[in-house]
Design goal:
Length: 132
């Protein structure tokens, strides 16, 4: 079995390490070895920043997604809908209104009044000449 060595930490730091170690590891030694291996393997210093956190990346992504949605809505409103309306109007065919003929049967039946009547008058003779 490996022997232990005492390292002096401030009380506050030791408590934080113990809480962290108990949460994620079986022993304090395993926690320390894993942390040291992490920094050595990734060739980073514990003092340097790793970059944006998950929350900041998520916030930036949400902003970009909202911007893309706004652009798509604008394109739809200004380009897609008017274009679709124009294309639909081109392909729509209206039934031509059927214009009635000059003399149509229904009008002839409605007007039963005769326009010209034969007048038997004394003016005309049997030969077709008028008497004077």
């Amino acid at each position: 079995m490996d022997s232990f060595i005492g390292i002096r930490f401030k009380k506050e730091t030791a408590k934080r390490f113990q809480t962290f170690s108990r949460t994620y590891f079986k022993s304090h030694t395993e926690a320390m070895v894993t942390m040291l291996d992490f920094f050595f393997y990734n060739e980073i210093s514990p003092k340097e920043k790793l970059g944006p956190t998950g929350r900041t990346i998520e916030a930036k992504l949400l902003k970009r997604i909202n911007a893309v949605i706004a652009i798509m809505r604008d394109v739809e409103k200004t380009q897609t809908k008017p274009t679709v309306a124009m294309i639909q109007s081109l392909f729509e065919t209206e039934e031509p209104t059927k214009k009635p003929l000059i003399v149509e049967k229904k009008y002839a039946e409605e007007k039963k009044e005769v326009r010209f009547r034969e007048i038997e008058s004394a003016r005309f003779t049997t030969k077709g000449r008028a008497k004077r």
